[in-house]
Amino acid sequence: MTEKLIIFDTTLRDGEQSPGASMTRDEKLRIARQLERLKVDVIEAGFAASSNGDFDCVKSIANAIKDSTICSLARANDRDISRAAEALQGAASARIHIFLATSALHMEKKLRMSPEQVFEQAKQATRFARNLMGDIEFSPEDGYRSDMDFLCRVLEAVIAEGASTINVPDTVGYAVPELYGNFIKTLRERIPNSDKAIWSVHCHNDLGMAVANSLAGVQIGGARQVECTINGLGERAGNCSLEEIVMAVKTRKDYFNLDLGIETKQILAASRMVSQTTGFVVQPNKAVVGANAFAHASGIHQDGVLKARDTYEIMRAEDVGWSANKIVLGKLSGRNAFKQRLEELGVQMESESEINAAFAKFKELADRKSDIFDEDILALVSEESLLNDKEQFAFVSLAQHSETGERPHAKVVFTVSGQEVRGESDGNGPVDASLKAIEAHVKSGAEMVLYSVNAISGSTESQGEVTVRLQNSGRVVNGVGSDPDIVVASAKAYLSALNKLQSKSDRVAAQG
Ligand code: KIV
Ligand code: ZN
Q1: CATH code of 397's domain
Q2: Which residue has the higher pLDDT, 282 or 456?
Q3: Is the CB of 229 under 6 A from ligand 1?
Q4: What is the mean pLDDT of the chain?
Q5: 169: Cβ below 6 Å to ligand 1?
């Protein structure tokens, strides 16, 4: 019988740790629902003890999702583990993921603990967690840079205490495929009770080898769980990318000979949702989900593909959710058609009034843009102002004047806690003038660290999707806005980022 490869998605935990990628509870819930449709085996929904906000996210996801196991990260202490168990109470299937660093560097410099103390704490924490829940995963943080003898001792002990998954992180992305694969193999060979656990790989992408390392951990090391994120989202250079792992194992079944439970047709929708929610744009040449991943530009390739598809294609675009840009809705579409399309796209609105608000925005857009694509709908409903009328800042209108040889000038009307205000400024260009007009009133003092524009469906007729990343007092947030007018999209994105800066965060980082 073919063995199964477990796909553990950590977009909502490790992915979200990427500066600027933090998501609201509603956004996380929407992504969790898409991950469920994608049929990932385990969803790491967050780090319940890190903040009240994260606790709520894990709890809401645990209550909403039925077909995937929901997991919360926890440090190796009773409080974190109890918080994780509490947040996971409503889950149909739940897992606690405990982590504790085991490398000499992390133990000495970060934890300031002796190896003996770490050994005892790992054992004690696993025992405590195992008394609360049946499904326990243990991760020796910076495992790949840990001393092999010490790591074997710790992992043997936590398996004896009941950890049923052992995950070996390459926390800093230092590994190379052959060595990482052999590292997992050696651990499994040397640890006497290694067969009592499922072995898992968790690789960061600092040297661009996260996917290759993970696959080597599977093939050479015998790991049967891969931890990954949609679009490879994650701190620094990111995590191992889910879509690449899944399609490599599926396309090269002749080599890996493993089964997957993944509904691959949902990959692209998941990729778009994560990118639109976080503002982390997918590069066009990104494998599987990049805009060019299946585009054959050269004449020779086009000719070959037309004659026989497999001359240049190793996967079918439809299998990962690509289809020709379909006009799904237009000006004449009714509320029911709109609602049904939202459901098909995995967008769940909590109330009828929220659907009405979204439908009103859709009609507004359809008046200005004849063809409405799925991307437009997703962009429209991802605007915070729609999903949350409690937001402090909301866009109302904008007027700007720019002419060759003249300095552009903008007037922006927006609301602050429901009260209409206006700001006015000139600037280097219309976008600069508009954002300065908002700032002239708000005076946030935030520094802009990124500004990017993307044409949602690829042509000048499409909506512009703007991402603005702001930094203030050590916090980094992303705001995303979309509109057929990119100056308006920019103002919306700026206001969305200001809203995120307003929401206080007291999160504890999982690493560092
Ligand atoms: O990279 C890492 O070490 C982690 C652990 C917390 C599992 O994300
Ligand atoms: Zn990690």
Answers
A1: 3.30.160.270
A2: 282
A3: no
A4: 91
A5: yes
- Per-residue pLDDT at 486 exceeds 90: yes
The token pair at 133 is: 């829940």
Q: Is the CB of 510 under 6 A from ligand 1?
A: yes
pLDDT number for residue 385: 47
Is 508 inside any structural domain?
no
Strands 69-75 and 419-426: unpaired
In this structure, is residue 481 part of a structural domain? yes
pTM of the model: 0.85
Residue with the nearest Cα to atom 1 of ligand 1?
171
Q: In Å, how far from its chain's centre is CA 355?
A: 25
Q: What is the CATH number of the domain that holds 224?
A: 3.20.20.70
Ligand 2 centroid–CA 17 distance in Å is 9
pLDDT tens-digit series, residues 25-73 = 988 999 999 999 999 999 999 999 999 999 999 999 999 999 999 999 9
Q: What is the mean pLDDT of residues 335-342?
A: 85
**254 C-alpha vs ligand 2 centroid, how far in Å?**
30
* Distance (Å, whole) CA 125 – CA 413: 54
Question: What residue's CA is closest to ligand 1, atom 2?
Answer: 171
Domain that holds residue 120: 3-278
Q: Which atom of ligand 1 is nearest to the CA of 169?
A: 3
Whole-angstrom distance, CA of residue 137 vs CA of residue 231? 24
Ligand located closest to 99 CA: 1
Which residue has better confidence, 128 or 384?
128
> Ligand 1 within 6 A of 14 CB?
yes
Q: Ligand 1 in contact with 99 (CB < 6 A)?
A: yes
DSSP line for 187-233: HHHHSTTGGGSEEEEEEB-TTS-HHHHHHHHHHTT---EEEEBGGG-
Indicate if 54 and 196 belong to the same structural domain.
yes
